[in-house]
Amino acid sequence: MNTGVGVLCLVVLDAQEYERWMKSAYKTLESARRDRENGFYNWACFKSHHASEKALKALLWGIGRPRPGHALVYLLLHLEKELGVEAPVSVKQACATLDKYYIPTRYPDAWVEGSPEDYFTEADADEALEKTLVIVKWVEGVRRELSRKEALSGKGLIIPPDRVLNAWREG
Model confidence over 82-99: pLDDT tens digits? Predict the structure, then answer.
């Protein structure tokens, strides 16, 4: 929908807020790596999800459009909509894979018998860590692009008015 409004709206990335979230994402990723090395594969999988969530939320908080929730697929969809970008298939697949590690990695009642520690393998942990790196690298690339556009415009990221209007209506 084009509103016909002849004004461009600017969104400035809050670098400090973005960095705050990314710092936490990287620390969580490092904790996941240590869990994998020590054989705590279920926790490596969960923390990989958690690090990815923090990375996606770093962008959302950075553009002033935080979103509640833990589903990476939906956080990514929200980011795509807010920024007018489409994430690569590899990022979408990484989010879908990691979303499956949110509940069953932690709760025994997610399983008929045993506990989460009985069900997750070294291969699962390796895959989760790899998928997290795909997401984190994409987030960092988007951040670099936002910073580049900000520098070129001298003010901020130019967002078409119809997207700002739609975000205002939803928010």
Answer: 988 899 999 999 999 999
